[in-house]
Design a protein that fits this description.
The structure is a single chain. Helix content is about 10%, strand content about 65%. It is mainly beta. It has one domain. A 14-stranded antiparallel barrel has the order 1-2-3-4-5-6-7-8-9-10-11-12-13-17. A hairpin with a 4-residue loop joins strand 12 and strand 13. It is globular. The N and C termini lie far apart (about 45 Å).
Length: about 325
C-alpha cells in the first residue's frame, strides 16, 4: 500500500514539474497559452504547367514531422532543442509526341536540429536565439558533408500591452546559392476574444476568427526560401514557395488540433542552377551580385492544399485559443 502511495505521489510531483516547466516555456514564447510539442503535415500542390514548356507539368508533395523539448534554467530562462524532418517529391510529367506521357519523380529531403535559448529581460522585453544546423539534399546523399548548411535566428519581442506584442528579428543561413539574410518585423494583436492578427512581414501573416470554442478559421500567407544540393548533377535547386490560403483549426480533443488549409501560390519558383554560380547575397527575395544560368523552366502558380496534425499542450485553464505559430 505504501509503495502505491509513493508511486502516486511521485506521479503527481512529476506532473506538477512538467506543468511548471511548460508554464515558464509558455511565458517566454510570446505570451502564448500553449506549446506545440509535436506535429506532422502533408502539403499537396496539384499538377501545374511549366512556363515556356507547354508539354511539361509538375506536381508537388511535401511531408514533414517536427518536435521540440524545453528545459527550464535559472531566472525563468529557457533552453530548448527541436528537430524537423521533411520529404519533398516533385512529380515531373512530360507529354510525348506520340500521345503518351512519362512521369519522373525527384525526391528531396532535409533534417535539422534546433538549439534555442530564450531570455526574459523584464516583463516587457524578451529575446530568442536559435542555431539551426541541417542536411538538405536529394535522397541518395542526404547526410553527405557537402550538403550541410548552418543558420540561425535572432528574435526580439516587445510587449506593449496584454493584447499587443511587437516583434523584430533576422534569419541568416548559408544556402547553396550563397548567403541568405531575411529580416522581419511584425506584431501579434488580440483585437478581442474573437479576432486576432499575427503578422511577421516578409514571410507570414495570419488573421484568426473564433467561430466556436473548438473551431477557428481565417486567412493566411506563408512564404519561404531554401535550396537543395544534388548528388549526381553539378547543380542545386532553389525553391521559393509563397502561398495565400484560408484555414480552419478543429480541436479533435483539447490537445489534438487538426489544421486544414486551401489556397493558391504566389510567385512560386523551383529553379536549378550550376553549383559554381552563386549570388553575393540574397536579402529576402532580392539578389545582389551574381550572374546565374537557369536550367529548368518555372512552373505556373496553382492551387495548394495542406493538412496538419498538432499535439498542443495547454497551460491555461481558459478555453483553447488556436493560433497557428508555425
Amino acid at each position: 500500500m505504501r509503495d502505491v502511495v509513493r508511486k502516486t505521489a511521485k506521479t503527481q510531483t512529476m506532473k506538477k514539474l512538467i506543468s511548471i516547466a511548460l508554464f515558464f516555456w509558455l511565458a517566454m514564447a510570446n505570451a502564448q497559452d500553449y506549446v506545440d510539442l509535436a506535429g506532422a503535415y502533408l502539403r499537396y500542390a496539384p499538377m501545374a504547367q511549366k512556363k515556356n514548356y507547354p508539354e511539361q507539368y509538375r506536381t508537388i508533395q511535401h511531408v514533414a514531422l517536427e518536435a521540440k523539448v524545453p528545459f527550464i534554467l535559472k531566472n525563468k530562462n529557457v533552453f530548448f532543442i527541436g528537430t524537423e524532418s521533411s520529404h519533398m517529391t516533385l512529380f515531373n510529367r512530360i507529354d510525348m509526341p506520340n500521345g503518351g506521357d512519362i512521369i519522373i519523380p525527384d525526391e528531396y529531403a532535409f533534417v535539422n536540429l534546433q538549439f534555442g535559448y530564450q531570455h526574459n529581460w523584464n516583463e516587457k522585453w524578451q529575446s530568442t536565439f536559435v542555431l539551426v544546423p541541417k542536411f538538405i539534399s536529394d535522397m541518395p546523399t542526404l547526410f553527405d558533408g557537402n550538403h550541410f548548411q548552418f543558420g540561425g535566428v535572432l528574435l526580439v519581442n516587445c510587449k506593449q500591452s496584454e493584447n499587443l506584442t511587437w516583434r523584430m528579428g533576422v534569419y541568416a543561413n548559408k544556402e547553396f546559392f550563397g548567403p541568405l539574410l531575411s529580416p522581419s518585423l511584425g506584431f501579434y494583436w488580440k483585437v478581442n476574444d474573437k479576432l486576432q492578427f499575427d503578422v511577421n512581414m516578409m514571410n507570414r501573416a495570419f488573421l484568426y476568427y473564433r467561430a466556436h470554442d473548438r473551431f477557428w478559421t481565417g486567412v493566411g500567407f506563408r512564404g519561404g526560401i531554401n535550396s537543395y544540393g544534388l548528388s549526381e548533377e553539378d547543380v542545386y535547386l532553389e525553391k521559393v514557395d509563397n502561398n495565400i490560403f484560408v484555414f480552419t483549426d478543429v480541436f479533435v480533443t483539447k490537445n489534438l488540433v487538426l489544421n486544414l488549409r486551401a489556397g493558391h501560390s504566389i510567385l512560386r519558383t523551383y529553379r536549378y542552377f550550376p553549383e559554381d554560380e552563386k549570388v553575393d547575397m540574397k536579402l529576402a527575395l532580392v539578389n545582389f551580385g551574381g550572374n546565374r544560368t537557369k536550367y529548368d523552366g518555372d512552373i505556373k502558380d496553382g492551387l495548394m492544399f495542406e493538412v496538419r496534425l498538432i499535439f498542443r499542450y495547454w497551460l491555461s485553464k481558459e478555453e483553447p485559443i488556436s493560433k497557428d505559430l508555425n
